Amino acid sequence: MAPLLEVRDLAKRYRATDALRGVSLRVEGASLVGLLGPNGAGKSTLVKICCGLVHPTSGEVRVAGHAPGTPEACAAIGYLAELFRFPPWLSADEVLRLHQELAGSRGGAEERSALLELVGLGYAAGRRVGEMSKGMQQRLGIAQALIGSPPLLLLDEPTSALDPAGRRDVRDLLVELRARGTSVLLNSHLLSEVELVCDRVVIIDAGRVVAEGDPGRLARAGGVEIETASGIRHFPDAGRDDIPGLVARLVAEGERVYEVRQVRSTLEDVYLEVVTPQEGR
Ligand SMILES: Nc1ncnc2c1ncn2[C@@H]1O[C@H](COP(=O)(O)OP(=O)(O)O)[C@@H](O)[C@H]1O
Ligand SMILES: [Mg+2]
Q1: How would you write the pLDDT of the chain (281 residues) with one tens digit per residue?
Q2: Prediction pTM value
Q3: 44 CB less than 6 Å from ligand 1?
Q4: How close is the Cα of 126 to the center of ligand 1, in Å?
Q5: From the CB of residue 165, how many other CB atoms can be counted at a distance below 10 Å?
């Protein structure tokens, strides 16, 4: 079976700007993939190309084996743009009804209430968008993207405008979606707990993939720190298995040991290491 999303050597040039310079990535199985990178890295451009909204300069994209923009590819994708705005006078239920019409879904009231329930808005079907918090609007946006049960969701900065509680809600929702068999590619310029639930992260910078892997492995171990009476001693190449030997040696040398810590670089450390700092970001 073709992967849900296959991007090969994708490049996009807008007049004088190279937004993408040869990006390859794949999404398959029910997985959460985080596409991370600073503002201007090319994340939105990539997602828009996958939706058929922007034409690439070169390279290839296949959505469930189909070219972007074809009816088959569109049916396989649910998309939520970065700066979406639903009409403030529509209720949650009306927003979904409008999008069912746009997507040609025949799911009717049953699909709408199941989606509102799924995103935790079952109690707010009649609430107007203008009277919803940002977090509620974001969850409504995700419900909209799920109309027609597409196997792949493309979410552009789904948590950037949210407070920590809103981010947690979206994170829990993404985990729930994965459990139901949906794959998600989410763009983000922020590192938060949401990225930490991803099965894989792809970090892009200036149109290129600069790091890729599972977040736990990218955030690799960074040695051992031992606090002694004479100060903190660093053993940058040591791992967990070296700790008993190190402590025994220090004690044998007459040191008093107070605390031992394994140092881990976080995903944020890795991100800052691979992303080039630039003025005005
Ligand atoms: N329609 C456009 N016309 C010209 N330049 C664009 C257009 N869209 C994006 N860009 C430029 O392409 C680069 C990548 O933008 P974008 O894909 O929006 O990045 P990100 O989503 O990672 O912030 C940026 O330098 C941006 O200014
Ligand atoms: Mg963007």
Answers
A1: 889 999 999 999 999 999 999 999 999 988 999 999 999 999 999 999 999 999 999 999 999 999 999 999 999 999 999 989 999 999 999 999 999 999 999 999 999 999 999 999 999 999 999 999 988 999 999 999 999 999 999 999 988 888 888 888 888 999 999 999 999 999 988 777 667 789 999 999 999 999 998 887 777 667 889 999 999 999 988 888 899 999 999 999 999 999 998 887 777 888 888 887 765 44
A2: 0.85
A3: yes
A4: 37
A5: 9
In 3D space, the residue among 91, 66, 95, 72 whose CA is nearest the CA of residue 2 turns out to be 66
**Residue 242 and residue 195: Cα distance in Å, rounded?**
31
CB distance 42 to ligand 1 below 6 Å: yes
**CATH code assigned to 5-76+150-217:** 3.40.50.300
- Three state DSSP letters for 23-77: EEEEECCCCEEEEECCCCCCHHHHHHHHHCCCCCCEEEEEECCECCCCHHHHHHE
Contact 12, 20 (CB under 8 A): yes
Other CB atoms within 10 Å distance of the CB of residue 107: 16
Domain boundaries, the chain: 5-76+150-217, 221-264
**Dist. CA 79 → ligand 2 center (Å):** 13
Nearest-CA residue for ligand 1 atom 8 is 45
SS3 content of the chain, % helix, strand, coil (to 5): 35, 30, 35
Nearest CA to 45 among 6, 25, 19? Answer: 19
Residues with CB under 5 A from ligand 2 (ion): 43-44
